[in-house]
Amino acid sequence: MAEPIRVVVTGAAGQIAYSLLYQIGSGEVFGKDQPLILHLLDIPPMMSVLEGVVMEIADCALPLVKEVVPTADPAVAFKDVEAAFLVGAMPRKEGMERKDLLSANVRIFKVQGEALDKYAKKSVKVLVVGNPANTNALICSKYAPSIPRQNFSAMTRLDQNRAKAQIAARLGIGVSAVRNVIIWGNHSSTQFPDARNATADIGKGAPVPVYEAVKDDAWLQGDFVTTVQKRGAAVISARKMSSAMSAAKAAADHMHDLWFGTAPGEVVSMGVISDGSYGAPPDVVFSFPVTIKNKQWEIAQGLPLDDFGKEKLAITGKELLEERTEALAVCESCNL
Ligand code: NAX
To answer: What pTM value is reported for the model?
Structure first.
C-alpha cells in the first residue's frame, strides 16, 4: 500500500466538515488505496466539539484513516500536508458590513497562508471553501509566496453542480447526461452560470447543445441564472442552515478532479488566479472553465461567449476587483 498522505481540513468542527470528512476518509477524494492522516483544525472554543468529531471518525472504522490529528494550532495543522481544505471562515453576522467580514477573513487567511508557506509541502493543493472564497484564496496565496499560485483554488463547484442539476431536471434526464456547464467569476450572487457551451445527452445519438435541447433561451438567460445565483439563500430559508451536504460533495468533487484530472472533452469550473482570459480582470481569483492533467489546471480557451455572457463577466469581475481592493486595504492598514 502507498505511504499515507497528510490532509488538513479547517473548520473541522463545523457542518460542511462533518459531511466532508467521511467522504475523504472513505477514499472518494484521493482514491480507495490511498492511506490518510487527517489533520483537523478549528479554533480553541471548538476543541470539545472537535473531540466528538474525532470519536465519530474512529467509530466509522475507516481502513484508510491511519491517524487523526485534532488541533487549534496552525503550525501543527499544516505540517507536511499535501492537500488542504480551507473550510473554516468568519461567518457573516447580523448587521455586519462586507468590509468587516472581509477584514476578519483577511486575518484568518493571512495566518493560514503563512502557516502553509512555512509548514506544508510545496506541492500542496489548497482549496478555499470559506467565504468570500475567491478573495480568501487570493489573500492566502499572497502570504504563501513559496507555494506556486497555481496551487490555490476557490470553490465554485457547488454552483456548477447546482446548475447541472437544474438543467437535468428541466430536460428530465440524469445529471451525468449534462456536461460542461460553466460558472464564471465570483462565488456570490454575481456569478454567471453559463450553459452556452454545455451539452446534454437526450438519448438521440450524440449529445446536443443544451440551448438546442432546452429550446428556451429566455429561461437559460433568466430564471436558470437567478435560480443558481440564489440557491444558497433558498436552502438557508428552507433548512434554516446553509448548504452543507452539497457543499461537502462539491469540495470532494473539486479536490478529486485536481488529483485525478478531468475526463477528455470535459471542463470543470474553479476559482483560479486570472491571467486575463476572456476579458476577466487579471490577478483576482476568478472562476473559469479548466481542464486538469497531472494535478495542474489550465484555463480552457476559445469557448464561445456572446454579448450577454460578456456583460455578465464584467459585472462579476468588477465585484472581485472591489473585494481585492478592500482586502488589500485591510492588509495595508493593519500592517499585515
Ligand atoms: P460552520 O459555521 O458550521 O463551521 C465553520 C467552522 O469554522 C466552525 O467550527 C468555526 O469554529 C471554524 N473556524 C472559524 N474560524 C476558524 C479559523 N480561523 N481556523 C479554523 N477554523 C475556524 O460553517 P459551514 O457551514 O461549515 O461553512 C463554512 C464556510 O463555507 C462558510 O464560510 C460558508 O460561507 C462557506 N461556504 C462556501 C461555499 C462555496 O461554494 N464556496 C458553499 C457553502 C458554504 O456557504
So the answer is: 0.97
Domain, as residue range, for 212: 157-320
Q: Is the CB of 53 under 6 A from ligand 1?
A: no
187 & 59 share domain? no
CATH for 163? 3.90.110.10
Per the domain annotation, does 327 fall within a domain?
A: no
pLDDT tens-digit map of 296-308: 999 999 999 999 9
Beta strand spans in 53-190 (E)? 65-71, 83-86, 125-128, 152-154, 178-179, 182-184
Phi and psi, residue 9, nearest 5°: -125, 125
Q: Render pLDDT for 252-283 as a digit per residue (tens, 0 to 9).
A: 999 999 999 999 999 999 999 999 999 999 99
Cβ-contact 140, 125 below 8 angstroms = no
Active site residue 39: no
Q: How many structural domains comprise the chain?
A: 2
Q: Which of 15, 21, 41, 42 to mutate to test the pocket of ligand 1 (most atoms within 8 A of CB)?
A: 42
Residue 127 lies in a domain: yes
For ligand 1, whether the C-beta of 25 sits within 6 Å is no
Is position 326 within any domain? Answer: no
Q: To 5 degrees, how large is the angle CA 37–CA 131–CA 326?
A: 130
**133 and 170 within one domain:** no
Which atom of ligand 1 lies nearest, measured to the CA of 155? 41
